[in-house]
């Protein structure tokens, strides 16, 4: 058994994520995992982040299957209707990847 979301692993974002989210939001997901979640709650290997519009800015809503722990993180970045509504962070034990829901089947 491996510990999910170890920051020493290689981290990636899928082509779909890179083409639909700015770098600062992708980086923010990794920061949220490392600074707000890791060591605070047990993490599964798939984490869900909903991107929500909040007064023109982005709020990331974290959740994971099998847990009733949820968290909203307000970010200082402008929201766009072009952003995906949801992304996943997936850890396969070797690498960690941020994916669109339509891409999760590939992993």
TrEMBL record:
Pfam families membership: DUF960
Source superkingdom: Bacteria
Family matches, as Gene3D superfamilies: enterococcus faecalis protein
InterPro entries: DUF960 (IPR009303)
Name of the protein in question: GTP cyclohydrolase
Organism of origin: Enterococcus faecium EnGen0003
Lineage: Bacteria, Bacillati, Bacillota, Bacilli, Lactobacillales
């Amino acid at each position: 058994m491996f510990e999910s979301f170890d920051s020493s692993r290689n981290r990636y974002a899928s082509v779909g994520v890179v083409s639909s989210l700015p770098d600062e939001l992708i980086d923010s997901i990794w920061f949220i995992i490392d600074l707000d979640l890791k060591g605070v709650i047990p993490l599964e290997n798939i984490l869900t982040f909903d991107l929500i519009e909040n007064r023109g800015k982005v709020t990331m809503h974290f959740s994971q299957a099998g847990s009733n722990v949820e968290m909203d993180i307000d970010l200082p970045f402008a929201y766009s209707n072009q952003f995906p509504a949801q992304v996943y962070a997936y850890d396969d034990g070797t690498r960690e990847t941020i994916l669109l829901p339509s891409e999760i089947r590939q992993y």
